[in-house]
Design brief:
heterodimer, A: 286 residues, alpha+beta, OB fold (Dihydrolipoamide Acetyltransferase, E2P), Ribosomal Protein S8, Chain: A, domain 1, five-stranded mixed β-barrel, four-stranded antiparallel β-sheet, 27% strand, B: alpha+beta, 4 helices, 29% strand
Chain lengths: 286, 244
């Protein structure tokens, strides 16, 4: 029996392509075994880690995973929360309980907190076998996003847009003064000078197209140098950490919470669980 | 009424000078439609197909959803101007409905949509030029587009028409050959190149058992060649992108 690796590491392979023969190789994500042979089960970039064959997707829709920090858009307001678009085949639900660190009275007008069309940075807390998704807004860096521009990219290319230690994002921001937020679902939110936003959009398009090549950060650096004449003057933006790397800017988060406090109604404070102060005045319907 | 009696003529050489086991020239491209999740173009001789994949995405109406797996829907459509002179009426008809169905069935066995319960993957196949073998060109384009869309699939189906013209067993019939007066048989075959499994087999005409075996063997050979072209198109797409 021969043990042979037929496809090369870091190479694009297509469905049905023979990758390796021999029982010592192990098929992982995107590969499958048939008899002694291992074949590619999808289009992707082959990763050979010792004897494990793994595929990095180069295309495809985002699928929700627990723990991902994503950028979502409020699509609908429900009785007890919001339905949000997640750039995947499945919508997610943001429950009132998960909407903020503070208590939201049952009778509140939920549109005062998040209205339809609002963009939010949220985290996935649960995904069922039927891909019903729950998200939360409770956590560092999770907040509502203001006005800006949205670009959708393939989720598997998000790490390349962020770069090693956020090098790519930092470079784009320092060169153009555009604030960037990248969700792991491939939604990129940016806000800055409109002309510079266009340049960042173009840069992201290049990164997405060439995500499977090496030396990308250097090439984007050269490209940005060439675009210098197009970049308009901007105010320097303070370093802003990506939610993925933890941490958040206090200002934005506080602001949102403040906004919510103003919108929330005071009536019904304490709820039905009966705090020491006694039951609140009941409202119609219950 | 005077009956015109055709001489059941011998078909000695093919109209376009090809060998019996030779396909028409093939051109394949990937990523031709920007807004689609995956797309491909497949041209074989005078038949050209575009395929665009959208999804996996939410499936409506809800009663069509399958909670165990995602579903695949292919749409076959001939452009009004695509045929040999006669205008095809736009929109679906009985023929396109059948072809959509058989194309879906010929691709379904290789795709794995279990990670996408309740969702749908839509494949739209548009034929801009048709000169026989359009369902086969559609399958070839669709399988490339699905691969390009990052759908999990075991293999890429490759389809080709084989058949009999006069007494010759040939591969990849043209429209003129299908209408050969001495009688022609046209068999559409979709093959999984890896295993040799057949996922589509339709015949128009008549053929003997021995000839059918011979024709299917030719289809297997042709499918392997098509698979190579499909593979090259997908790989070249990522190579050319890096050069830009």
């Amino acid at each position: 029996m021969t043990e042979e690796l037929i496809a090369k590491d870091k190479e694009i392979v297509v469905p049905g392509e023979l990758l390796a023969t021999g029982m010592s190789f192990l098929p992982s994500k995107g590969c499958y075994r048939q008899g002694e042979h291992i074949y590619a089960g999808r289009l992707g970039l082959l990763n050979v880690e010792g004897k494990v064959l793994k595929m990095t997707p180069v295309s495809g829709r985002y699928l929700p995973h627990v723990g991902d920090t994503i950028i979502a858009r409020v699509n609908d307001v429900l009785m007890m929360g919001w339905r949000v678009w997640t750039n995947s085949p499945y919508e997610a639900v943001l429950n009132v309980k998960e909407a903020s660190g503070e208590f939201i009275p049952p009778s509140s007008d939920l549109t005062q907190i998040y209205a339809i069309g609002d963009l939010i940075v949220c985290q996935i807390i649960n995904v069922t076998s039927q891909n019903l998704v729950d998200v939360t807004m409770r956590g560092p860096g999770l907040r509502k996003l203001g006005s800006g521009r949205i670009v959708n990219v393939c989720a598997s290319k998000v790490p390349r847009i962020i770069g090693k230690n956020a090098s790519m994002v930092n470079m784009l921001r320092d060169a153009t003064g555009v604030r960037l937020h990248i969700g792991q679902n491939g939604v990129v939110w940016m806000s800055g000078e409109p002309e510079n936003e266009i340049i960042v959009t173009e840069a992201i398009e290049i990164i997405e197209r060439e995500a499977h090549t090496t030396g990308l950060t250097d090439r984007i650096k050269v490209w940005l140098e060439k675009q210098k004449s197009r970049i308009v003057a901007f105010e320097k933006v303070a370093e802003e950490q990506q939610p993925e790397t933890g941490g958040f800017e206090g200002g934005g988060f506080r602001e949102e919470r403040g906004g919510f406090r103003g919108g929330g109604q005071r009536g019904g404070f304490g709820g039905d669980r009966g705090p020491p102060r006694g039951p609140p005045p009941r409202r119609g319907g219950f | 009424m005077s009956a015109i009696v055709h001489k059941r003529g011998a078909y000695t050489a093919r109209l376009d000078g090809r060998k019996n086991d030779q396909m028409r020239p093939i051109e394949a491209k990937v990523g031709v439609i920007k807004n689609a999740d995956g797309s491909a173009y497949f041209k074989i001789g005078g038949t050209a197909a575009y395929a665009a994949v959208y999804g996996p995405r939410e499936l409506h109406p809800k009663f069509m959803q399958n909670p165990k797996t995602g579903i695949l829907r292919c749409y076959y459509n001939m452009m009004p101007f695509s045929g040999a002179g006669e205008r095809v009426r736009p929109g679906g008809n009985r023929r396109s409905k059948e072809l959509s169905h058989v194309i879906t069935q010929s691709i379904e066995p290789v795709v794995d949509l279990t990670p996408y319960p309740n969702a749908v993957v839509d494949v739209f196949i548009e034929l801009t030029e048709t000169d026989a073998g359009s369902r086969c060109a559609g399958i070839c384009a669709a399988s490339m587009a699905l691969a390009h869309a990052g759908i999990e699939m075991k293999d890429m189906p490759a389809a080709i028409a084989v058949g009999k013209i006069g007494d010759q067993v040939v591969v990849d019939l043209t429209g003129d050959e299908e209408h050969f007066e001495g009688g022609a048989t046209d068999i559409a075959v979709s093959v999984l190149p890896l295993t040799g499994d057949i996922t589509l087999l339709q015949m128009d005409g008549e053929i003997t058992a021995q000839e059918l075996v011979k024709a299917l063997a030719m289809a297997q050979e042709a499918a392997k060649k098509i698979y190579k072209i499909q593979t090259k198109a997908l790989k070249d797409h990522y190579k050319s992108e890096a050069r830009q």
